[in-house]
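Hi support team,

I submitted a single chain yesterday and got back a structure, but I'm not sure I'm reading the C-alpha cell output correctly. Could someone confirm the output below corresponds to the sequence I sent? I've pasted both exactly as they appear in my results page.

Thanks,
R.
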Amino acid sequence: MPRPSRRSEVCATAARLFREYGYGSATMDLIADEVGLNKGTLYHYYPAKSAILYELLSKQVDATLDFLDLVPAEGTITERTRELVRLQVDHVSSKHDEVVVFFQELPWVEKHLPPEQAADLRRRVRRYEHFTKQLLTAGVRSGEFRPVDVAMIMSSVVGILAYVPVWFRASTGKAQLTLVQELTDFVMNGIIAVPSAEPAPPAPRKPARRSGAVTGGRGGRS
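Hi R., thanks for writing in. Yes, this is the structure output for that exact sequence:
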C-alpha cells in the first residue's frame, strides 16, 4: 500500500515556522527536521519553499472569497454586512498560524513568489476588497451606515481580523461563539447610523401673573 501523504502536515508545520521565524529564516532544512522527513522527500511534496507559501496564502484568500458567496443576496445592507463580518471573525478565531502568516507575508509576495503567483494573489485580494467596498458604499447611500470613509473602514476591519489569531485561543466552543458575537457587534456598531434623537417637546408655559392683580378677596380701599 502507498504511504499516506504528509503534505498537510508539512504545510501546517511550515505555517508554524513561518510565523515563528519569518519566511526568510524558516529554511527547508528546518521544515524537514520538524516534520521528520529527509529533504528529498520534502521536495517531493513541494519543489520549493515558495510553493508552500503560495499554497498557504492561496488557501486563506480562497476561504475568504467563499464567504462572499455565503453573504445573502437578499436582506438589508446591514444584515448582509453583518453576515460577512461574522463569517470572517469566525474563521480567523479558529485559524492561527495560517492567518498570522497570511497577514505577515502578504505585503512581501512580490519579493518571495514568482510574478504570476504574486499577481494572482493580488487579483483575488482585490476581488474581496471590491465586494466589501461596494457593500459599505451601498450602506452609506441607503442611510443604514454613517457617512464613513469606506476604504478606511475596510482597512480597519481587516486590521481587527488580522490581530485576532495573535491573542485569541478558544478554551471552549462557547468562548469562540462569544468572541464572534461581541466582535461582530463591535464592528457593526461602529458603522451603523444612529437615528438622531427627536427634540423634546417644549415645556408648557406658565400663565403670566398680571401686574397689580388682586386675588383671594376684595381690592383694597381707596
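A quick pointer for reading it: The radius of gyration is 30 Å. Let us know if anything else looks off.

Best,
Support desk
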